[in-house]
Amino acid sequence: MAAEGGRAKPLAQSGMENFRRVRTSEEEMPLPFPDLPPDVVEMKVKEGSKIRNLMNFAMAQMELKGRRQIVFSGCGRAVTKTITCVEIMKRKLGGLHQVTKVRYKTVLEVWESQDPPLDGPAQNLTVHKNVPSSCILLSRDPLDPNQSGYQPPEPRSEAGGDTLGSSSKGLKRPLPPPCEELLPKKLQVQESDSPRGTGTIAGQQDP
Fold first, then answer.
1. Beta strand 41-44 with 69-75: parallel, antiparallel or unpaired?
2. 192-to-14, 97, 99, 177, 186 alpha-carbon distances in Å
3. Predicted TM-score (pTM) of this structure
C-alpha cells in the first residue's frame, strides 16, 4: 500500500462509513468495433436500468426502424444485465451475428461527508475504480468470423411467452460467473478537506 501526502492507512479506517455517494461518472471510450455506421444505436446499460424498457427501445430500433446493427454496453455490476439483454434479443430476432469485447473502464465516484466539520467546508472524497466493461455488437449482416469474440447466429426461438418479463430466466443457458481477472483491480481515494492540501490514498483491494 502506498500513500501520497500523508501516512498510509487501510481503506476500512479512512472513514468511508461516514460518507455518502453523491455523483458517479464513467470514462468515455470509443466503441471497440471498426467500420460501424455513424448512426449506430448504442444501448448503455446501467445497474438500475429496467430490462423491459431497454428491450422495448432496442427491438423498436431493429424491427420498426430497420437497423442492421446495435451495440449493448455496460460496466461493473451492469455487465450481467447487458448480457441478458443481448441473449433476449438474439432469441427474439434470430440470425444475429455477435462480437463481444471486454475491457476495463475507469469509474469516478464523488462521496460527501455526512458529518461535516463545524469550522470548515464539507469533506469530499473522489474515488477512481477500474471496473470490467463489456461491449457487444449484434448485426444482421455477416461479420468477420476470424475476429476475437465472434459468435455465429443462433436459430430463432419458437418458444412463446413473455421473454422480456422473464429476464434471465428465459436464457437457454445460465450466465457464466464473473472471471476473477475481471474483478476491479485498483481503488484510489483522493481526499480533499480544505484548500490547504490534498492527499491521495491508493490501496489494493482484497481478491
1. parallel
2. 13, 48, 42, 37, 20
3. 0.65
